[in-house]
């Protein structure tokens, strides 16, 4: 119940406040979104696997976002930001895909 | 990882998998679930069964979901807000390009109009001031349009030239493919026409004067720094038939025949009863001034200009 409340609250805050992302951080937002989605799908899969742990979920979410942003930041400083962004998106994309596949197997038994 | 199965002659041992080169992808796909969950589950199992979820756990989850939802929503909002911005900037750029092009076109039209006016004025002044003699001078200088019988040559690139196919003996500096009419071909043709007694020559309606240059820039032939588009129509005013005979008997005629026979350059020659050649545009001199008949030849004026230039280059 509290979890659903948190989810709804997060969406509402996002919609209502229309957060103005600072110009310097704009490039990290898509990466953060992909990292967040990865954490969410990972958590969902763990839930269905019966291994879910709240703390692991939050920590993995935060570390995903921070590490992804750090990698891209480092890449920007080194002049390979675009390439590293692609790398991060590819890794998270594959993870999201296989997690969704596992979720699908759980839900549809197929 | 030290063994390289693809290169070793030994049979692959048990540790090397056929998809060893896909190690990274497999790693990512097999470990898509955070290891933390496994460890937490193992810890719980070691502690003996699932403990009931505390309020703290629920708050953790709520905070995590809140953050995730917030980030995703913010990303979506940002993307939505950014899309019209990008489109607007693009539109603005396009608008600026359009405005710039229009401005350039307007200026070009103005330049053309002024050039025509200048040419008109020069022609009027020549006829007014000097009468017969000035007209002759203007005619010879290409400053006024002329008409008369003459010879028309149409020189065109060989069939299929410009597609870049086929290298031949004519490759070299300038044009890379053969079968294209070059500046020096046109130079020979024009020289041949002058030699054959032409009194006025124009290429593609660009009148040649004593200051005209036929040259190449990139893949285009330029006359007076204006690019020409093939086919090149060379018109020469003179005694039509005699002009043609003299031209074809001369070296330029032989060159043209060679070009036609060996490189497929298309040439058509025709005697015309009446040709109209336009006046040359922008024929001005910046340095040459008429010599004062009273002054001695070799005036000091030239030396003064030399001196000026030298001073310009003194560091």
UniProtKB/TrEMBL annotation, chain A:
<feature type="transmembrane region" description="Helical">
    <location>
        <begin position="80"/>
        <end position="98"/>
    </location>
</feature>
<feature type="transmembrane region" description="Helical">
    <location>
        <begin position="56"/>
        <end position="74"/>
    </location>
</feature>
<dbReference type="InterPro" id="IPR009709">
    <property type="entry name" value="DUF1290"/>
</dbReference>
<keyword id="KW-0812">Transmembrane</keyword>
<keyword id="KW-1003">Cell membrane</keyword>
<dbReference type="GO" id="GO:0005886">
    <property type="term" value="C:plasma membrane"/>
</dbReference>
<protein>
    <submittedName>
        <fullName>DUF1290 domain-containing protein</fullName>
    </submittedName>
</protein>
<keyword id="KW-0472">Membrane</keyword>
<comment type="similarity">
    <text>Belongs to the sbp family.</text>
</comment>
<dbReference type="Pfam" id="PF06947">
    <property type="entry name" value="DUF1290"/>
</dbReference>
<keyword id="KW-1133">Transmembrane helix</keyword>
<feature type="transmembrane region" description="Helical">
    <location>
        <begin position="27"/>
        <end position="44"/>
    </location>
</feature>
């Amino acid at each position: 119940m509290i979890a659903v409340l948190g989810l709804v609250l997060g969406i509402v805050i996002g919609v209502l406040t229309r957060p103005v992302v600072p110009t310097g951080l704009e490039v990290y937002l898509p990466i953060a979104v992909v990292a967040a989605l990865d954490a969410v799908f990972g958590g969902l899969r763990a839930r269905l696997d019966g291994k879910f742990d709240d703390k692991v979920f939050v920590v993995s979410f935060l570390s995903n976002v921070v590490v992804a942003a750090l990698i891209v930041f480092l890449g920007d400083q080194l002049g390979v930001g675009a390439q590293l962004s692609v790398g991060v998106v590819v890794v998270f994309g594959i993870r999201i895909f296989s997690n969704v596949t596992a979720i699908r197997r759980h839900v549809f038994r197929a | 990882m030290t063994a390289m199965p693809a290169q070793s002659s030994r049979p692959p041992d048990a540790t090397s998998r056929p998809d060893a080169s896909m190690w990274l992808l497999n790693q990512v796909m097999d470990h898509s679930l955070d290891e933390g969950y496994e460890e937490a589950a193992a810890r719980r199992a070691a502690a003996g069964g699932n403990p009931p979820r505390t309020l703290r756990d629920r708050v953790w989850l709520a905070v995590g979901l809140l953050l995730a939802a917030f980030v995703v929503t913010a990303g979506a909002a940002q993307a939505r807000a950014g899309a019209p911005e990008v489109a607007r900037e693009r539109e603005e750029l396009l608008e600026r390009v359009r405005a710039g092009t229009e401005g350039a076109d307007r200026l070009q039209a103005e330049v053309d109009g002024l050039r025509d006016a200048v040419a008109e004025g020069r022609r009027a002044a020549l006829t007014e001031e000097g009468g017969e003699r000035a007209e002759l001078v203007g005619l010879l200088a290409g400053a006024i349009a002329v008409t008369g019988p003459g010879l028309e040559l149409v020189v065109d690139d060989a069939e299929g030239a410009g597609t870049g196919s086929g290298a031949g003996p004519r490759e070299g500096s300038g044009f890379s493919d053969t079968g294209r009419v070059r500046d020096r071909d046109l130079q020979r043709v024009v020289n041949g026409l002058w030699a054959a007694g032409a009194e006025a020559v124009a290429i593609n309606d660009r009148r040649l004067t004593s200051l005209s240059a036929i040259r190449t820039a990139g893949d285009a032939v330029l006359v007076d720094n204006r690019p020409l588009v093939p086919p090149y129509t060379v018109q020469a005013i003179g005694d039509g038939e005699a002009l043609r005979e003299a031209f074809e008997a001369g070296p330029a005629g032989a060159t043209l025949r060679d070009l036609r026979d060996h490189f497929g350059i298309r040439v058509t020659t025709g005697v015309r009863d009446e040709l109209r050649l336009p006046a040359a545009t922008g024929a001005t001199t910046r340095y040459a001034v008429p010599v004062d008949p009273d002054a001695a030849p070799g005036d000091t004026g030239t030396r003064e200009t030399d001196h000026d230039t030298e001073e310009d280059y003194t560091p």
